[in-house]
Amino acid sequence: MNYFRLTCVAAAALVLVACGGSDDPARGALIDPPATLTTLTAAQIDASTSSAGLQALTGKAKCDVKVVALNYATVGAKSGENTNASGVMLVPGGSCTTAAPLLAYAKGTDMQKPRTLANPQDSETFLLAAMYAAQGYAVVATDYLGFAKSTYSYHPYLHADSEATSVIDSVRAARNAAGTVGANLSGKVMFTGYSQGGHSSMAAHRAAERDYGTEFNVVAGAHLAGPYNLSGSLRIPDAIAGVQFFVPYLVTSWQKVYGNVYTDVKQVFKAPYSGYIENLLPNPTMNYTTLLTSGTLPAGTPNQARDALFQSDFITGSQTSTTHPLYLAAKKNDLLGWSPKARVLLCGGAGDPTVPPAVHQVVMKADFDSRGMTNVSSVDVDAAIQATFGPGGKAPTDPTSAAFATYYGAYHGTYEPPFCHAQARAVFDAVK
């Protein structure tokens, strides 16, 4: 692999690494030259946000947005692992010439291994372009380890430390690419992410302030619908929506990172799933829908799917024991107990069936409050979601109805994100 290496002088200037003869690439060094894929004009963005009903939240575009593919050096989940990750940089242009803050974004849980955010047609990428880049923010978003161009052998799902390094190194990559792609960066850095990305962005924010305080001028973080209290989530008696995707992803990932979550996969998973689950996610060909329709993962209610997939002893142990290996792994990846210096927003919707705020957002805010943090705010966007998408402006209440299934099936993945992003941008606008 031919890494685009920084010189020692440049690396030192960017505070990337100390030069001393190592052959390892600097974290955030560009492996490939940044590739401009297209430029979305302000008019194109406005047409799309108008037709999608998003413009009331995004506002009209102020800037054209250049979409740039990145491939950069980073590190794996274990010490000494040098690898790479890909992603996208969104560069404001056109009439926008003012120096831009750099917003690092972390995406939500992804089932599709080939997917990259360096795709102008990707809905998540477009939302970032419309909500942030078209308003004068430079945005960088990682694909994470194990996705797209990353050669890492798996994705360390909800592993806080490697999520943090992937995001932080994407910021370094964006800075390295800035001159080539015409990005005028102000030096201010912000972190945000949604769902898994809320966990990733908070982990990155924590690491940036704790470990790289002289390198990054972190001015704010907005962490959206993230599972910050993973050990607490194991104590929920009923399964969450999407349990058949998220929990096996988490269990098999932590097994690969720590090696001690189980000694035999059959201790955790029932047949036939135990025969292939360890290498199922992320998948090279299947998505959320086809994983279910093919029978590769079980369907049904969350509790039905959980009981079809998991050995009951393993689930009971993780729910009740403080020494259970899954609980101990979860504790390592909880994000409770840190004190941010920059302004922080927590956002979610009270009706979220996948990442319940009562388990994560509320607990996280109480944890911050317990240490006297006055720079943390928490917003519940459920009322706006109900008013916009609920039948008659209210959440459906009959769990047997089609409206109930539609509403809660779309709540976390479709309804909630734009409302939380709008709240995030209001915070960022105040400090940019």
Task: Based on the model shown, name its key terms.
2 domains; nine-stranded mixed sheet; Rossmann fold; alpha/beta; 432 residues
Notes on the protein architecture:
- The protein has helices at about 10-15, 40-50, 55-60, 125-130, 160-180, 195-210, 230-235, 245-260, 290-295, 300-310, 310-320, 325-335, 360-370, 380-390, 400-430, and strands at about 35-40, 65-75, 80-95, 100-105, 140, 185-195, 215-225, 345-350, 375-380.
- The chain is globular and about 60 Å long.
- The protein is of the alpha/beta class.
- The longest helix is centred in the C-terminal third of the chain and has 30 residues, at about 400-430.
- The chain contains 15 helices and 9 strands.
- The chain is about 40% helix and about 15% strand.
- The two termini are about 40 Å apart.
- Residues about 1-20 have low confidence and may be disordered.
- A 9-stranded mixed beta sheet has the order 1-2-3-5-4-6-7-8-9, sandwiched between helices.
- The protein has 2 domains: about 30-230 and about 340-430, Rossmann fold (3-Layer(aba) Sandwich); about 240-335, no CATH class.
Sheet-strand content, in percent, reads 15-25%
Overall structural class, as computed from helix and strand content, comes to alpha/beta
In terms of per-residue confidence, which ranges show pLDDT below 50 for 5 or more consecutive residues? 1-22
Structurally, the number of domains stands at 2
Mean pLDDT: 94
CATH fold type of the largest domain: Rossmann fold
Strand order of the largest sheet: 1-2-3-5-4-6-7-8-9
| Count of distinct strands | 9
